[in-house]
């Protein structure tokens, strides 16, 4: 081995731990920074840009430690001075368990869906204190919580506190009127003050004397828990210890008081949950309705918690200090992000409203179209989560089949339903909208997705690096796919006959200049000889070659040239971090969710295409613009969010691959599938695009490859890509609608 006394010899690093390597610190589940080992490890990570996906994982996955005397050469044995030559293409993954490691490995495989969220439950001890607070119940008493007068708490007072407290006062008055419900009246009176401002107060479940004598003896006692006299409402009702009065009081409460308050707390819970940052208020209301209001009044103790008081006995039911927490965007329910959970009821509303109110009595087509598009977002998330879960728990073959089958199901569902509707109505607009959506997805994933990730990631990281070799494979396939998709269009412009709808002589001279409108290349001249004999065979040939090229790309990156990514995974050897995989979704559960989400996606796509016709007809906006923006980018929002998360963790390689893979799948899978579909179900879809689509797509691909040549970028280059994308959107916005629409 090379030692410090031998500066002329090259040192070994990166692939394994050395005896003098610094000890890896305990992980913190949600930290943004990467875990670093030796100086060479840090340099290799900077060159290969492998920090991003690794920064928030539970432990390092290393190869087994080899004694110094028997160490084998590693990837950086050729390390010379400051540069680790082989580390340029090496990626070392870290994960809590084998399933999570398999998911991370799939992120770097070409053709597999890139997924940021965990598919397994993360160990509780590896979570940061911020995340632990999100999942904790509101029953933890802190020694010093600071001031309770915050903007979030004042917001609670304005939104919920005042009317909830007033409702408790009214219910208390009703309980006093019934006489038998008076014990619960005192409880509601105390709770009115609590829910007006619950911060810094505690509700506890305490044990009280059962006999009348013990009750009388307790009148002069002080609470051993918090100090001070025993709550006043215990004393007047000690005489009600008989079973009859107790049952009568409880019956009055459950019939008159509890339903009203439970309904109010349910409304507060749903509203606060949908606002996300107010989820602590939702927990507060849910716990109050399910625990506090169902306890006997004499067992509920409400006191203000002073700074020096720490209860030592008794069960704490509620203790809240803050009404809001901005970190709740990280909150997940069974592995599903809270925003996806909140949007799921929207799918049910869309389906019920769309199919029950088919005559548009309740809402119009614009509302139903908007709801259908919004419903596609959570369904896309569930499909992506299901694909990632199945792939992580299966072998390579099953994962590849699932990704190839369902990876583009969101877009294809909408495109096919639109083409079917256009064919039934004989309306060419639907085919043009599909072409616009295909082009919009291609341009958006090439320019907007990586550009936005560069800008947001560049705010945190001054310069970001990525694997230029892996990006080069996707770029080459993208060049090939764009050339193949637009080959029939270029062929038709060379050999087609130019036909114009209206021509005007601007010089009043028969030999002068003519101004023509609605010009296009006619391929049906001479009974369509040019189209059926030349263009259509070319379209079928391209549709066969493009999927074949996609399969070759898969074989190249996943079989013969895996060193481009060089993913290293082994078991976790961190002391105290031996965790078994607890998956959120099993394979069967993920498969059921995948099929159900696909079915709902088909229904939402059918509703979107059903109600898009009035928008296309009555809207003053170009159909081109509607296709390249709304229809193209809404289904890709979950992918955009994943890309941004990777970029924030300095893993721009995956952010770029997300956009490139979607663009490649559009050209090499989605378009050939649409062409194949038109063979069995004739539609108006032909692989002939407008000039605007051709120029925008080719310019975007050329610009992207120019930006990605050096393997590094910053927020300025990302700004250039985003600005070019918006310029193209402006062109589409002011462009006239396609002919025939």
TrEMBL record:
| Topology versus the membrane | Multi-pass membrane protein
- Name one molecular function that GO assigns to this entry: calcium:proton antiporter activity
* UniProt KW GTP-binding keyword: no
Write down the superkingdom of origin: Eukaryota
Q: Which InterPro entries match?
A: CaH_exchang, NaCa_Exmemb, NCX_ion-bd_dom_sf, YccF
Primary location: membrane
**Bilayer-crossing regions:** 154-177, 251-281, 336-356, 362-384, 396-417, 437-459, 471-491, 538-558, 590-609, 621-641, 662-681, 687-708, 715-735
Q: Which UniProt keywords apply?
A: Antiport, Calcium, Calcium transport, Ion transport, Membrane, Phosphoprotein, Transmembrane, Transmembrane helix, Transport
Location of this chain's protein in the cell: Endomembrane system
- What biological-process GO terms show up in the record? intracellular calcium ion homeostasis
Name this polypeptide is given: VNX1 protein
Q: What organism, scientifically named, is this protein from?
A: Cnemophilus loriae
């Amino acid at each position: 081995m090379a030692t410090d006394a031998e500066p002329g010899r090259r040192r070994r690093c990166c692939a394994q731990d050395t005896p003098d390597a610094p000890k890896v610190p305990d992980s913190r589940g949600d930290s943004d920074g990467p875990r670093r080992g030796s100086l060479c490890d840090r340099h290799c990570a900077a060159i290969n840009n492998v920090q991003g996906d690794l920064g928030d994982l539970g432990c390092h996955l290393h190869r087994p430690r080899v004694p110094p005397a028997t160490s084998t050469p590693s990837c950086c044995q050729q390390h010379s001075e400051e540069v680790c030559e082989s580390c340029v293409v090496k990626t070392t993954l870290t994960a809590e368990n084998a399933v999570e490691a398999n998911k991370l490995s799939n992120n770097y495989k070409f053709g597999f869906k890139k997924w940021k969220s965990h598919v397994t439950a993360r160990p509780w001890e590896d979570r940061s204190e911020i995340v632990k607070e999100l999942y904790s119940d509101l029953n933890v008493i802190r020694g010093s919580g600071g001031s309770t007068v915050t903007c979030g708490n004042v917001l609670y007072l304005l939104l919920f506190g005042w009317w909830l407290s007033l409702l408790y006062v009214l219910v208390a008055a009703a309980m006093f009127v019934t006489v038998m419900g008076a014990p619960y009246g005192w409880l509601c009176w105390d709770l009115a003050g609590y829910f007006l401002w619950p911060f810094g107060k505690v509700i506890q479940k305490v044990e009280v004397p059962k006999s009348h004598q013990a009750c009388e003896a307790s009148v002069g006692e002080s609470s051993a828990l918090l100090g001070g006299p025993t709550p006043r409402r215990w004393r007047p009702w000690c005489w009600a210890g008989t079973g009859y009065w107790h049952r009568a009081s409880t019956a009055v409460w459950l019939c008159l008081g509890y339903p009203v308050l439970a309904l109010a707390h349910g409304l507060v819970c749903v509203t606060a949950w949908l606002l996300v940052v107010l989820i602590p208020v939702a927990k507060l209301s849910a716990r109050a309705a399910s625990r506090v209001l169902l306890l006997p009044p004499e067992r509920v103790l409400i006191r203000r918690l002073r700074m020096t008081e720490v209860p030592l006995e008794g069960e704490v039911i509620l203790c809240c200090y803050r009404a809001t927490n901005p970190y709740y965007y990280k909150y997940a329910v069974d592995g599903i992000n809270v925003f996806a959970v909140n949007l799921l009821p929207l799918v049910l509303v869309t389906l019920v409203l769309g199919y029950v109110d088919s005559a548009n009595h309740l809402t119009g087509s614009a509302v139903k179209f908007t709801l259908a598009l919004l419903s596609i977002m959570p369904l896309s998330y569930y499909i992506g989560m299901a694909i990632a879960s199945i792939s992580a728990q299966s072998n390579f073959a099953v994962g590849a089949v699932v990704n190839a089958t369902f990876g583009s199901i969101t877009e294809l569902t909408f495109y096919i339903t639109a083409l079917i509707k256009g064919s039934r109505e004989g309306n060419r607009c639907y085919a043009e909208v599909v072409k616009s959506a295909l082009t919009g997805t291609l341009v958006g994933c090439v320019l907007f997705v990586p550009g936005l990730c560069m800008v947001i990631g560049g705010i945190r990281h001054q310069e970001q690096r990525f694997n230029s070799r892996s990006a080069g494979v996707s770029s080459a396939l993208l060049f090939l796919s764009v050339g193949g998709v637009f080959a029939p269009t270029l062929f038709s412009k060379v050999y087609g006959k130019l036909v114009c709808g209206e021509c005007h002589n601007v010089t009043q001279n028969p030999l002068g200049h003519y101004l023509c409108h609605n010009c296009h290349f006619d391929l049906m001249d001479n009974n369509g000889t040019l189209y059926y004999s030349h263009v259509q065979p070319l379209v079928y040939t391209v549709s066969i070659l493009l999927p074949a090229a996609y399969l070759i790309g898969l074989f190249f990156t996943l079989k013969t040239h895996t060193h481009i990514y060089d993913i290293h995974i082994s078991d976790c050897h961190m002391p105290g971090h031996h965790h078994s995989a607890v998956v959120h979704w099993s394979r069967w559960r993920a498969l059921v969710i995948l099929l159900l989400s696909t079915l709902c996606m088909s229904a939402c796509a059918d509703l979107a295409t059903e109600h898009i016709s009035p928008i296309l007809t009555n809207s003053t906006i170009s159909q081109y613009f509607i296709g390249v923006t709304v229809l193209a980018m809404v289904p890709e929002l979950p992918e955009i969010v994943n890309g941004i998360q990777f970029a924030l963790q300095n893993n721009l390689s995956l952010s770029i691959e997300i956009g490139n893979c979607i663009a490649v799948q559009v050209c090499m899978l989605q378009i050939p599938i649409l062409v194949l579909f038109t063979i069995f179900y004739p539609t108006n879809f032909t692989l002939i695009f407008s000039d605007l689509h051709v120029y925008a797509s080719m310019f975007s691909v050329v610009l992207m490859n120019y930006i990605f040549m050096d393997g590094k970028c910053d927020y300025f280059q990302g700004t250039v890509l985003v600005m070019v994308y918006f310029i193209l959107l402006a062109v589409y916005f002011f462009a006239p609608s396609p002919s025939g629409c």
